[in-house]
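ingest -> validate -> predict -> emit
validate: passed (alphabet ok, no gaps, 139 aa)
predict: started
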Amino acid sequence: MRMATLSLSLPILAACGGAGDPCAGVAPQQLDVLYAKYFRAGALTGCSASGCHEPGSRQINDGFTFASAHEMWQKSLALQPQESSLPYLKPRDPDGSYLFRKLLPGIVDRMPRGGPYFAQAQLDEIKGWICAGAPEPPP
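emit:
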């Protein structure tokens, strides 16, 4: 009887975020808030107006351009990066999300190209959105 109880408990513990879980202790976030702070034109990095991800950009060859949080969300789920086998966005898995990994220190061609780069607290906010399941922002 004890063995059955233990085997049923292990999957539950794994799902709750144990050691090594990239989502452990990360606060849930909403993309519309993050977009306004970090990704829209005039924001800290202005990814959608940096010449890289703005609509019509010639620098992006896979179509990952956006002018709103909703468009960024849609394309991050629909498109596949040409230079990676990882999807742009894998809800609840920041390490499996190309979008997140491109923001990290030590990555080749780290985004935003040439900086300013995201501080750890900002990366944790973006991770919080992905860990929360990457919910759709309001239209």
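The mean pLDDT is 78.
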